[in-house]
Amino acid sequence: xxxxxxxxxxxxxxxxxxxxxxxxxxxxxxxxxxxxxxxxxxxxxxxxxxxxxxxxxxxxxxxxxxxxxxxxxxxxxxxxxxxxxxxxxxxxxxxxxxxxxxxxxxxxxxxxxxxxxxxxxxxxxxxxxxxxxxxxxxxxxxxxxxxxxxxxxxxxxxxxxxxxxxxxxxxxxxxxxxxxxxxxxxxxxxxxxxxxxxxxxxxxxxxxxxxxxxxxxxxxxxxxxxxxxxxxxxxxxxxxxxxxxxxxxxxxxxxxxxxxxxxxxxxxxxxxxxxxxxxxxxxxxxxxxxxxxxxxxxxxxxxxxxxxxxxxxxxxxxxxxxxxxxxxxxxxxxxxxxxxxxxxxxxxxxxxxxxxxxxxxxxxxxxxxxxxx
Length: 373
What we know:
globular; disordered N terminus; methyltransferase; 5-methyltetrahydropteroyltriglutamate--homocysteine methyltransferase
């Protein structure tokens, strides 16, 4: 094996052959401390000290699995998206009447609204990333934030503030440009945008929702793609930005189903990203046929073939066969492997144990080492 082939197979830059989406199961220590802080029994500073200690521990646990990329597990968040979006200028939280409906379960109630012009001046998560960066060692630290599309998808937009969609999406993209630069200046070189909004294109029910809001699928696809591309347009050349395209993840349940076909051409040939994390852990995701739209040889696809929803380990040979199937559409050199989602998109977490979580990551590493020898 030549030097170039060895480098290509091992991948020294993100996304890695064995990667992860980001969130990890909150430990009992974290859950207890957050409840105590909410009740006024400990100070925010004391909570942060506890979070620091637990993040140090779980970063070491990640390193022990053999994976090259580490995250803070989103341990300082209650939600994968609201916590970040609420920190944007012009966005505020409110008590919603109901939670988000998943298959058989509903989240606690939470809402966000755009009440003034959007901007980015500072954010508490810059400090969160800096702490992760300080303990990453020789590993790569990944920061995860919601895609700009999530503010449009989950937020209530005051028409008195934004009566025009073009102005809203323009300001949103500019705010994200500033956010990306701020994370870069904090040391981040691997940023992931998490996005459940694309799943609305994957089924007839989703397209009905689009039309009910006054859009056509074609128009909304174009707006979503443009908001992302404008947001990342000025990213530094040594910063990797990927996107995780999700169908929902809460207590091992989900919200959407359907293949990527409803938006595949836009997703695979219309987004100026370095990589895509794709859910392919069960039949809800459809076949690999949609990958035929991948035209760029430098786009990395991270196949989420290992489920994060349950603890049982998949048959390695089955996963390898599925990677082989995907390689019929995209060169094996452009493929990587990960769990299909995080383990705890919200602080409640999925229905598996912490030990099972670590075994899942080890499983990903072992299979990737066998495939990309």
